[in-house]
Amino acid sequence: MSDWIDIRDEAAFARLVMDSRAPMVVAFENEACTGCHEHRARLSAAWRLLGRPGRSVRVDADRLPDLASRFRIVGFPTVALFSGGQPVERFLGWRNQASLTRRIAGLLDGVPDRRRRSGVSSSRQGARRSRGAA
């Protein structure tokens, strides 16, 4: 289960994320991001599917631009996975439930998902094969 914590200042970020030994999911968002709320719900569902406790924090990049800049956040949503207070992986943009769950599972198991992708998801490849077979 994930309990979302809104980060209000850089001191809270340092205390809750950088000083934590527990795995953390950090969602960098801004007010203009229309899909961020849904994406956050998918991240929470990933924690529930894994059946493990987890903590997630939300950073409003409009409110904390220096923090977003320090982590080179260029678009939204950007999700950063932290372990032992260090960023171990991040990804930009919306992800489906399976992808989010796999990435969080990798973080919890100590092996972030760093596989190279061809740029086409397996579901898209399957759809292309289906159309070609018809």
Automatic annotation (TrEMBL):
It holds the Pfam family Thioredoxin. Keywords: Redox-active center. Residues 9-104 form the Thioredoxin domain. Belongs to the thioredoxin family. This is Thioredoxin domain-containing protein. InterPro entries: Thioredoxin-like_sf (IPR036249), Thioredoxin_domain (IPR013766). Residues 114-134 are annotated as: Disordered.
